[in-house]
Queue: 2 jobs
Job 1
Amino acid sequence: MNHLPLLASTLFYFLSCCSAVVSFRSGEFRAGRFNVITIALGVIAQSCFLIQQGKIDQACPIRTLPEIIIFLSWAIGVFYLVIGTTYRISLMGTFTAPLILGLQSMALLLPAEKITSMMPMNPWIEAHAAVSLVAFGAFGLGSISGIMFLFQERQLKSQHPDPIFHHLPPIRILEEATIRLLWMGLILLTVSFAAGWIGSRSISGTKFGVSLLLWGAYSLILILNQKNRLSGHRFAFFAIFIFFCALMILPLIRYLSDLAVR
């Protein structure tokens, strides 16, 4: 594994986090071009790593747990660059960079894995795995948007809001961004299921059950929200809760994937 692009991207995300800390301590929240530029450079460096690793693996670079985590953090960064600029939520980078930095640091600290199975790769199965991770990138940024929603909601109820209150986007924009990100993630996850089915590869029943449970959880909160049976506060909370539950069971899904190919 070539660590140079990863170290470079980690440095860019670290600089973005430092900028956020300085802003919080000074009370001047002017997150804008610097956050966007540093995260964009981080995504570019991650892209270089993924391209190089893909050539080495001769497959989509998601064959080990560190590669999966890096791919996931890359997807979150890409969605931020698209959504953050579309909705003019540049301050979202202040909340996104620490998550990506944490994920990538974890990937760098994990012991290197040896790929023991070199079975021929089915392009549909590769698409299934890659699109699933891109979907979780959307879910990840949706959780960040949910955190911002809860923070802004708390500021609105406070009689003495913090200085950051005046720089956060309207709560309606945050709710809309969270809903759209979760719908995007759900659609992509559905597409990944279809690709896996077309690939006709037997997978662990437990792995499929876990993935289906996550799909059902996101579907449920989106449907309840659409029918106005879930408040914005609870919707944001569940968007955060489900994603971090998914992060915790990611090693389990990886382990079950290994069992499926043995």
Note: The CA atoms of residues 69 and 103 lie 6 Å apart.
Job 2
Amino acid sequence: MLNRSLPFLLFLVLVMTGCSTAHQAESRSYEKIEVKVKTEPKEIKLQEQTNILFTVTGDGKPVEQADVKVNIRQEGQTKSEELKARPAQKGVYSIQKVFAEPAFYHFTIYVKTGLNMQVVTQEIDLRSSHAATSAPKTEEHGQEHQTGHVMIHLMKDEHIKANQNTTLIAHVMDKQGPLTGAQVQFEYYQKKEDKHIYAEARERVNGEYVAEVKLKQGNYTLICHVEKGNIHEHTETALTVK
């Protein structure tokens, strides 16, 4: 009787060990996560589908079980589009996008890999007269602050014009992902003035808080305040209005 039970027990141990190993792989913590972006075709054509590929590496190795979401916003507009990237190959995730206008597009890429969170911002510039055939210009843009388990990533339009509406954006994440239901407020002031102005932000999508402001010409300090329960965090960056 005991001998007959041994194969079953051995099989049970192997299955449990395999499940444990898989769970450990999904929950692995990385010292450094990197995201590289490229488009196919390399030269973007307006009104045609473009494949956008995101290569995710953790400590220099491909990450196969990442959760990758992409928020796309055309500069000057308040509405944005959120897409979930699908696995394309080992460590590579993809979305499809049709660019309708020759404009400046902001990409916010949310990457969750087990115990890690990462927010990466990229821009694609299609504003030139040869936008339909020129290669995209990509660059990192924004201000990131992380304390404990909360990350605040500030974004703003690349070119802010005086006395015109501009959109301030804060992406807020905790260890579970986008932080929803927080009270977020933007504070801004010029160093030569004592007047501090506050703008309440609204949550446009999960973890993304926006506010429309109109600024006069000058150099500003911009502070983003985030509060929820025991969370009281803030970050600041410089802002130039021409």
Note: The helical segments are 2-26.
